[in-house]
Every structure is written in structure tokens, then in C-alpha cells.
Amino acid sequence: MIKPNRRTATADPDTDTEQRILDAARAVFVRRGTAGARMQEIAQEAGVNQALLHYYFRSKDRLAEAVFRQIAGRILPTVFEVLGSDATIEDKVRGLVTLYIDALSASPFLSGYILSELHHHPERARQLFTQAAGADPAHFAAPILRKLGGQIEARVREGTLRPIAPERFAINLISLCIFPFAARPLFQVAFGLDDAAYVRFLERRKRDLPEFFLNALRA
Amino acid sequence: MIKPNRRTATADPDTDTEQRILDAARAVFVRRGTAGARMQEIAQEAGVNQALLHYYFRSKDRLAEAVFRQIAGRILPTVFEVLGSDATIEDKVRGLVTLYIDALSASPFLSGYILSELHHHPERARQLFTQAAGADPAHFAAPILRKLGGQIEARVREGTLRPIAPERFAINLISLCIFPFAARPLFQVAFGLDDAAYVRFLERRKRDLPEFFLNALRA
DNA sequence: GTCTATATTGTGATAGAC
DNA sequence: GTCTATCACAATATAGAC
After folding, report:
1. Can you give the pLDDT at residue A12?
2. pTM (2 decimals)?
């Protein structure tokens, strides 16, 4: 029952066609970048004809938007869930580091794709939050920052932490988590690490990075 | 004497044509990304006809490569020069932070462009070093890492620093420097900062970041 | 070297049969 | 819903006059 043009499909032929197209589109857009992606390649990867992409998504633009929406809706909530939880600062740091390293290890191009989209379609940065929370970005992040800020403040009064604005806390931590993936080709070549060695470096980083980061905060 | 098709040119009409094309190409490739850039837009920005781009550079591919080569040749040497210098660790950190923040502030898309190129043309990562130093990447970075490692080790014996591999030192510092630019649209929206506020944040970071980073290393 | 005009292909999108 | 065939135009690249 396998149709001949599904020979090159990598998507599961049993799932819903629209979803299969979306999955294929995600893979191709992320791998090639939005501008570099070709409808033909997406169709092939989905195991369908190019015309079907237009039947379901009307245009490349809309398909790209659907892909970004899907990706954004998955990542951000998890991150802010961790940062806004009741866990201790130490647990938040460890949780976020592990979360990022595991997620990005599975998808080498993902970080670059998101950064590129945000630069070339800044309006989607907003979308990203409303998609995730149905709320204004500021009203979404504010309570989380307030909570984090409160935790920091309490520890500062305790004398166990030095003061830092919660925004700086978040930016520094997220930078340290994501950039080793975004700049992976650079670091691998610069330090002469093959794929296996870099994976080991990242795995070790789940312990090393929290230690480094928390030490920076220590009073 | 201004020719009519130079009306839209932003490049200096007095400089050498080949150089003017290269400058225009750099601007457009960095702004739009390599796949999103159009030869027509480059020609217009250079104030010449599209045919001239091919006369000088043969194809879009070669032009893109020339642009990357030019950019790579400018950035890396400076970075490794600072890291490999005789300055103290504290001065290296402060120097690198200021260097990055100043350079990337002037060109919002630059970090994303380089990261994207490295992902989509991994072979250029190598090029980037050979271009900068005429040497094998490993043989270029190794002495710098050795020197940095020696400095760290001496300070560890002194009891003023905790041990850290020089590679981790570099990766963490560079991550903290570049990522706030690579993810600028995200952070601006998340924290509700307009352009002016983000510039102030980056300016303040020239002091804040060295303090944060050095504290992380303190024994 | 620089231009205009044009060839050639690539690529998103549509028409219409089944 | 899915396909084949094709359109329309965008984009890279070349030919040839000046």
C-alpha cells in the first residue's frame, strides 16, 4: 500500500497528512533556515506532492509561521516553568542546564534557527510569548522575574548570595546554556574536538556549569 | 559625473569598484543571511549593475565566500590576540568583554550571520582560522590555550583562583559576551526593554560581566 | 570596466483530473 | 485529499555593445 513517492519520506506514513507535512517542514526549515528551505524538499521528506503543502498551508510563508509557532510553543513554557517554580535557586540552575543540554543535543540546528528567525522576524518574538502563554510578554515574564528576584533578595539578606538583578541572572544563565550549541562548529574546530569529544564536554557540563554559575553568585 | 544608477548606493562612490561591491555584499549578506541575500540588492547598494558582480566575483557563492573570508579575517585574530597576550587574567577578561560589546553593538546581525554560516558551511570554520593565521586551527589555538592554562594554574597554586580548563574558560566567557547580541530580540521582548534601554544594559555589562565572571573563578 | 539586454534555471504557486 | 502538469515570476548568470 506504500505509494511510490513515499520512497524518500522520513516521516511516519501512518500519521495524519497535515501533521506529517508540518513535521517535515520543521525538520527542513530548522536544517536549512527559512530562506534556504525548499518546498520541494519538504514535500519529499513528508512523502507527499508539493501541491499538498499549498493545499494545507496556502504558502511557504504561512507554513514557516506554523513551524515557528509550533517550536515556540514547546520551548519557552518549559523554561519559564522552571525559572518560576518554587524550587531553590540551586535546583533551578541545575534543572535549566540539564533541560537545555538535553533538548539542544537532540537538534543541532535548533538554536541557530530560532535566533535567526527572531532577528529576521522580530515580530515573532512577541508571538512566541503570546503563543506560549496567551499573554503580553511583559505580563508573562514579570511575575517570574519578581519571584526569582524575591528568592535572590532573601538569600542576599541571609548573606549567602551577592546581589544580581533577576534579568541578568536569566541572561547569563541562558547564554551559558545555549551558546555552546549555537557556536558548536566554531568551538569544535578551535579546540580540536570531534563529535564524540564535544558530546562528552556537554555531558560533563551538566555538572560543571551549575557549579561555575552558582559560584559566580556566591557572596 | 554621478551615474544615474548610483542614486541608491550607500557605499562611498570614490572607492575602488571591487571593494565597493565587497562592502555592499558584506552589508547585505550579514543583514539578510546568505540564502536570503539577493544579487540585485547588493548591486543596488554598491551603486553598480548586477553584471559587474559576476565580472568581479564570478558567482554568488564565490562572493559569499569572499565576504565570509573578509569578516573572519578581522574578528578572530583580535580575540585570540587578547586571550594569548601577556596581560593578567583580569585584564584579559575586561579587554575581551569591551572588545565584543563594542564590535557587536555596531553590527546587530553580525553574530547571527557568523553562527549561521558556521552551521551551514562547517568547512568554513577551518577556513576561518587558516585565513586568520595561515595555520592549522589546532596549532593556532593550542599555544594560546597553553599560555592561558599556565596563568590559571599559577593562580590556582597561589590560592586565588579555582581550577578551570582553559577551554571552559574561553567558552564560558565568549558565550556571556556574544549571546546577549545573538538573542537580543528575545531578551528585549521578554524583559520589555526598548533599544535605548538595551544599549544601556550592554554598556553597564562592560563592568558587570567581568565582575560576575571573575567571581565565578575565585577560589 | 561598465552597461543593457537576454538566456537559463530555480521555485513558489495554481489548474484541473481523479 | 491527492496527484500530474504547468504557470508565472524571481534570481543567477551570460552575451555582446560601448
Report:
1. 67
2. 0.95
